[in-house]
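Need a sequence for this fold. Nothing fancy.
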């Protein structure tokens, strides 16, 4: 398996950015953390995240799935999932 090191970042000319923050918004009449609002909307089925799934693999093809996610060999990967 491939690991991400500073060499990987340098060779691929990647920009690495990080953040540690959260927002608070008013939702359903009270102030709540934005992440919790997003989770609630997903649980209620009000947000369709299926377009983010770009690759699907049967579980027995887990090695191909990992290679695809790590090396992006089959084009842009947003989310890869295993299907029974």
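Here you go.
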């Amino acid at each position: 398996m491939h690991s991400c090191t500073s060499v990987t970042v340098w060779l691929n000319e990647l920009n690495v950015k990080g953040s540690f923050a959260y927002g608070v918004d008013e939702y359903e009449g009270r102030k709540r953390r934005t992440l919790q609002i997003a989770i609630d909307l997903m649980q209620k089925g009000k947000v369709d995240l299926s377009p983010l799934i770009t690759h699907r693999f049967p579980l027995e093809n887990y090695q191909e799935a990992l290679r695809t996610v790590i090396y992006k060999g089959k084009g842009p990967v947003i989310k890869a999932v295993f299907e029974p």
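For context: Residues 50 and 79 are 9 Å apart (CA to CA).
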